[in-house]
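Encode chain A's predicted structure.
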Amino acid sequence: MNKFFGILLASILGAVVALGGAYYLGFGQQVKVIKQQEAAPMAQLSNYVTPADGSMIPEAGFSMAAEKALPAVVHIKAARRATAGRGGLDPDQIPPMFRDFFGPGNGGGQQGEAPLQRGSGSGVIISADGYIVTNNHVVEEAEELEVVLNDQRTYDATVIGVDPTTDVALIKIEESGLPTVKFADSDQVRIGEWVVAVGNPFSLTSTVTAGIVSAKGRSIDILREKSRYAIESFIQTDAVVNPGNSGGALVNINGDLVGINTAISSPTGVFAGYSFAVPSKIVSKVVQDLREYGVVQRGYLGAGIVELNKAAAEEFATDRETGVYIRSVSPNSAAEEAGLEKGDIVLEVDGVTTLRNSELLEQLGRRRPGDAVALTIERDGKEQVITATLKNQVGNTDVVTAETKPAFYDRLGAELGVLTPEGAEEYGVDGGVQVLRLREGLLSEQTRIREGFVITKIDDEPVNDIEDIEKLLATREGAVMLEGKYPGDERTLRYGLGL
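Encoded structure for chain A:
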């Protein structure tokens, strides 16, 4: 026992000596140093920049964006009647992203009367007195239009104006004190930034999804099916958008509007990865025009353009592979009067880089007839700035209002567009006016003209612009002969029209 207690005592004394020696050598202080290092700021690479709020998921998720946007996003129920005599519209022939509006008919109506086609979409309240922005394809030719607010109040709505070239429409309900969203500057939206889509997909009201901006200035050639003057410069995002989201809000994490959801890229008609929204800068301009004039004031340059890439650069024998190449200049156009020439390459508009067609068209589309724009171009390898005063579609700087719109538009029952030099060359004609859309009127009632037909002559008199048609029809009585052709068809066709 004495031996055992001797060993135990020696062990205890050894441990005490070891701990004392460790403390003396600084091991206790080392523990304190490590603790201080753990509390020190984390080292950063020299090129590290703290991300802006828009590229980080907020601690509260996207609740603030949803709470601000949801009360101002409405559910739009629309019904239209297929045009009798033109066989209606086949849903299978309608692009999937537009299919939410053109649903199956309800089977009602009198014998010989086309059934109503019902569908739904979304809209965004932009003023407390009831103005709502949505897509043109949601409300187009609607006979019945109903708006359901987030709190389930229901109103009949009237269409203030539409713009097929941007797929934007403005409607109104009679109410006051409504919640609204603020417009953000879509130019400041960055690729990779978080965004939130708010709408009513599949009639599921008040649905919120989130994603990031995956591209800007995207053109998908969907609006050009309705108008050759379409402006496509979409914000592309991977926020989930489905039929019924059309016309709804795309907001930033602060809940401010950066775009109006318009289309999806999908082989099936439902979300498959990407959706597209009209930027708020375009929406704001279109809405302002529709409220003030009833129609959009578009400024036109009057030039055929081609987006440069390696293949185009080789075709046009230019060393530059980026920019917008001027392929042709229309007579008496803003481009001709400014001194633009075939072969010029547009690089900027008012200091904004425009290396793609979509970027150039977006910048011009924000201007009105009579606005002057500074174009930075490259000519013969040297940059210079040319100022152009934009014109309207008929070739002057006048403002067009719904009241002063030529009466012959209503008589003909058609939306017309002047053929560009590029289009004229493509169709094999010297010039003409194209029938972009048909509704009830002389052309649909008396002729077999379809949308896309290019009118080149009236009673053997050449037609180069809309003013030519107006003058020729105004000076004639009885029957006239329209002459022209369809794109891709070599035949020249003639149709008689009684005035």
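Confidence is low (pLDDT under 50) at residues 22-52, 83-111.
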